[in-house]
User: Which sequence fits this backbone?
């Protein structure tokens, strides 16, 4: 997880005009180190790992995740978590793992 | 993911997202309660830490939508729902916008056609016309053609008539005699055959004709074998060399044939004097308008010495060269400007009105907006939604406006005297649609902006708490008042304009045309001029025609004349008048309008003979030459003297013509008597003695018939007689004299009705606008009014308080409008008759009308306020 200014930009300052500049690129920084995650765990991880982001709204990754899905950089599947909950797992696709090769 | 898969899977995606977020919250709550928090506290914390659930979910969803198009559609759906819920508001707004946009779309159609759309000639931007006056005799045209280095020039006849004979029936046609290179200058090709060749306008080579497509179709059965055939035009055999394409029109749409000029330098009177004609040209290479203009001026001054008679030294010294398109709309310009101003004003008023309606509604929707903002709607989002609403409104107005434009367009067309190439096929095309849509969107943004901004910058907490009755009011009310004031001012401008036009038309209706058109009908009899070379033949023809016409049952009386009153053509003669001295070098013989009439003419038209006698049958070709002058002419040339026995004669004649009578003045040119100022008198000659400017007996005559029977039946009876007398003489233009009088005010009436419609709409809008502001602000002052009543104000006091507000608003607008009108109505001066642009009566009437509007608009709110129960009013808080 890269706790950079970029992540903060992506999650907090959902600036509309920035959206289309680097499709998917910024979002990659959140998900790539994590391989597979679901929303709640991702939010908790960000809060735990990134000191600067400890107060972000937990819902803020969702729009970014939707964008990854739309770009085809990630896919989802419903699974049962270790806590025995039905959760939606986000997983990078081959393109998502290494977007520059595709 | 392809777009259609997205479309179909989106519902599932949204479902997944909601479930996911719900799961997120549940897990958080579970975790928090596991750490010892109470259930309710945990729920609140989870929600707080998650952020704005709705907003985030909305944002996440928006990612799946195509850019903002879908938000737009969502907004659109919402707008339509809102508009449907307020049918009164919607109808009013849409109608006012439709009027504004429709008027402008119709106007744009015309402007596009006459000003923007290029003329249907090759590279029409390089075509120019000599103007001011820029008329040259045939020899002058040749001199220009030979001398010019900047232009390729061609002269043309603006319109002449010739008979087509030798077919089954004789037809009177409209044509133009032109320089042989005219078609090359215009850059047009024939449909088939060929255009004239260089030199074919020389005398002896000129017996050729080119037909218009419609003439070829109507009179020659679209026979492609027409080329090379000989047709008889004006008694002269001419070979058909070409047929022009359907779209071609020059100099105007009425032209049915083109013949070459008949250039014969050996006949100086024809070559240098007969017809002065307009000149069209194509700029060569890189030549500019200014170069062409200075060249034409210097060529004109060199040409003066070529004339076989003395010319004024400054002849055509001020000639200008104008782009052809500009030249063609010269006489339309004033009308176009006036109408464009009017439609522009209507649109402005409509905008102001809708803006003020929207502001009022924004106030009543304040709570809704505040609630949305509080629930997480971004401010920009609210503004965007309001703008979508206004643009939707404007587009609905635009759609209806286009329908209105289609209707109004034909009315506009009648208000404009145009016969330009391509004029008839002007219609609402895609240019106009694009214009209307763009105008609608702009309009929507214009009137939606103020309410949108004021709605998206409001104080949330305050708005929700008070329910919107008191907050954010004053600034907005002030804005609304300003809008309504402006609206009233513009309405005053339109009403004054309409008032001035109404008064002008009324003044025109009061005009005594000098004759009575009742139960008269007229038709044109046009033998070839050649027939009248033998004067007696023509005189006998008309004698016999009149005699037999009077014998048709139902015909009371009949006469013949070379022209009709109000006909806007001016047969004229240069004359000498007894008692006037002339300086030969000045060449300033007065030009007289002249009538060549049969004796029945004066009694048939009820033109009074004020002094002396009317013509009689005894005033024949060989008798003593006599004339009758108009009363004004007699007054002008022989003031205080007896005109009977005075003398008038055409400049080239040696014999005097003796004045035997004075006839009442007749509006020969038009009702408003705008006859050109070079006409300095009017005289009548008995037909057998008459001459025209070509020193010939007029051949083409108007038959005037008084009948109690059906004119059509009588006319066909006359036609039968004519065929028996001479089958080569065509008859045309059968009309009721009443219609002639009616037509002469047609343009003024169309113009007036357009302005009355605009002004009526403006008045309606202004009164609604005023009503809106007054009733809204008095509703806002409910508490204050309750207080006043409690403190002893009477119903009367309250009533006049509210009514006073309405009056103040309108009076302020009225003042502004009167000042604006004094400046703007000058545009109308050319359309006014007997009415000054600052006509005090009209201004007073409009002022009175506006005060009535103010009282009407203020009455209902004032009554409502006066009847408020003070207890209820105070409880509003």
Assistant:
């Amino acid at each position: 997880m890269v706790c950079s200014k970029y992540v903060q930009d992506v999650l907090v300052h959902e600036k509309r005009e920035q959206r289309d500049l680097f499709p998917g690129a910024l979002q990659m920084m959140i998900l790539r180190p994590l391989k597979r995650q679901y929303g709640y765990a991702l939010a908790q991880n960000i809060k735990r790992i990134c000191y600067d982001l400890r107060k972000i709204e937990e819902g803020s990754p969702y729009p970014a995740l939707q964008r990854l899905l739309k770009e085809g950089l990630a896919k989802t599947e419903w699974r049962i978590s270790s806590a025995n909950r039905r959760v939606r797992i986000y997983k990078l696709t081959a393109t998502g793992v290494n977007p520059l090769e595709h | 993911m392809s777009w259609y898969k997205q479309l179909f899977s989106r519902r599932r995606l949204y479902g997944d997202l909601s479930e996911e977020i719900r799961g997120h919250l549940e897990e958080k709550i579970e975790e928090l309660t596991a750490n010892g928090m109470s259930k309710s506290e945990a729920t609140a914390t989870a929600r707080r830490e998650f952020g704005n659930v709705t907003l985030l979910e909305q944002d996440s969803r928006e990612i799946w939508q195509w850019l903002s198009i879908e938000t737009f559609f969502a907004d659109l759906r919402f707008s339509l729902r809102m508009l449907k819920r307020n049918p009164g508001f919607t109808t009013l707004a849409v109608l006012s916008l439709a009027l504004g946009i429709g008027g402008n779309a119709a106007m744009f159609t015309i402007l596009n056609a006459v000003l923007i759309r290029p003329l249907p000639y090759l590279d029409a931007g390089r075509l120019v016309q000599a103007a001011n006056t820029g008329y040259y005799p045939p020899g002058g045209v040749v001199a220009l053609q030979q001398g010019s280095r900047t232009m390729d020039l061609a002269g043309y006849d603006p319109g002449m008539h010739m008979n087509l004979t030798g077919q089954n029936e004789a037809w009177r046609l409209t044509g133009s005699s032109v320089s042989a290179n005219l078609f090359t200058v215009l850059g047009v090709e024939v449909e088939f055959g060929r255009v004239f060749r260089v030199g074919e306008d020389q005398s002896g080579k000129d017996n050729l004709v080119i037909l218009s497509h419609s003439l070829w179709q109507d009179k020659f059965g679209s026979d492609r074998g027409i080329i090379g055939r000989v047709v008889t035009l004006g008694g002269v055999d001419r070979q058909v060399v070409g047929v022009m394409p359907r779209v071609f029109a020059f100099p105007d749409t009425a032209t049915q044939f083109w013949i070459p000029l008949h250039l014969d330098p050996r006949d100086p009177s024809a070559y240098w004097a007969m017809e002065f004609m307009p000149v069209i040209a194509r700029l060569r290479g890189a030549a500019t308008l200014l170069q062409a203009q200075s060249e034409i001026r210097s060529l004109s001054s060199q040409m003066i010495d070529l004339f076989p008679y003395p010319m004024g030294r400054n002849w055509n010294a001020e000639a200008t060269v104008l782009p052809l398109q500009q030249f063609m709309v010269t006489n339309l310009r004033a009308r176009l400007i006036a109408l464009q101003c009017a439609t522009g004003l209507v649109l402005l008023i409509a905008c102001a009105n809708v803006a003020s309606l929207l502001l009022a509604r924004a106030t009543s929707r304040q709570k809704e907006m505040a609630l949305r903002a509080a629930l997480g709607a971004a401010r920009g989002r609210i503004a965007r939604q309001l703008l979508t609403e206004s643009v939707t409104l404007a587009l609905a107005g635009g759609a209806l406006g286009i329908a209105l434009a289609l209707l109004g367009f034909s009315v506009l067309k009648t208000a404009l005297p145009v016969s330009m190439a391509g004029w008839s096929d002007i219609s609402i095309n895609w240019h106009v649609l694009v214009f209307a849509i763009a105008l609608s969107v702009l309009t929507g943004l214009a009137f939606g902006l103020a309410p949108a901004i004021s709605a998206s910058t409001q104080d949330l907490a305050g708005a929700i708490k008070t329910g919107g009755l008191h907050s954010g009011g004053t600034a907005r009310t002030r804005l609304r008042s300003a809008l309504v004031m402006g609206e009233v001012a513009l309405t005053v401008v339109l009403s004054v304009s309409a008032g001035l036009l109404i008064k002008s038309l009324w003044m025109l209706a009061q005009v005594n045309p000098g004759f009575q058109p009742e139960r008269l009908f007229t038709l044109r009899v046009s033998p070839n001029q050649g027939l009248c070379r033998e004067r007696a033949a023509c005189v006998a023809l008309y004698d016999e025609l009149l005699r037999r016409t009077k014998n048709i049952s139902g015909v009371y009386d009949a006469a013949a004349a070379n022209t009709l009153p109000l006909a806007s053509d001016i047969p004229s003669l240069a004359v000498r008048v007894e008692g006037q001295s002339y300086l030969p070098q000045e060449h300033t013989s007065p030009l007289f309008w002249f009538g060549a009439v049969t004796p029945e003419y004066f009694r048939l038209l009820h033109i009074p003979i004020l002094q002396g006698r009317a013509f009689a049958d005894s005033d024949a070709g060989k008798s003593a030459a006599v004339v009758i002058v108009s009363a004004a002419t007699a007054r002008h040339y022989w003031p205080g003297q007896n005109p009977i026995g005075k003398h008038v004669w055409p400049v080239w004649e040696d014999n005097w013509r003796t004045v035997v009578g004075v006839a009442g003045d007749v509006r020969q040119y038009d009702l408003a008597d705008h006859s050109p100022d070079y006409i300095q008198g009017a005289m009548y000659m008995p037909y057998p003695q008459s001459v025209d400017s070509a020193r010939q007996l007029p051949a083409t005559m108007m038959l005037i018939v008084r009948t109690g029977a059906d004119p059509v039946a009588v006319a066909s009876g006359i036609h039968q007689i004519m065929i028996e007398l001479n089958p080569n003489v065509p008859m045309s233009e059968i009309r009721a004299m009443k219609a002639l009088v009616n037509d002469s005010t047609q343009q003024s009436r169309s113009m007036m009705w357009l302005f009355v419609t605009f002004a009526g709409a403006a008045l309606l809008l202004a009164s609604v606008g005023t009503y809106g502001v007054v009733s809204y602000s008095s509703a806002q002052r409910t508490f204050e009014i309750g207080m006043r009543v409690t403190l002893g104000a009477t119903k009367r006091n309250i009533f006049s308080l509210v009514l006073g507000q309405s009056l103040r608003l309108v009076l302020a607008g009225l003042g502004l409008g009167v000042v604006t009108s004094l400046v703007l109505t000058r545009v109308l001066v050319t359309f006014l008759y007997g009415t000054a642009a600052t006509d005090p009566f009209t201004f007073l009437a409009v002022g009175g009308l506006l005060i009535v509007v103010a009282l009407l608009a203020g009455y209902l709110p004032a009554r409502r306020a006066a009847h408020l129960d003070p207890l209820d009013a105070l409880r509003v808080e």
Notes: Chain B has a mean pLDDT of 85. The radius of gyration of chain B is 38 Å. Chain B has four domains: 3-64, 133-318, 333-510+746-875, 527-729.
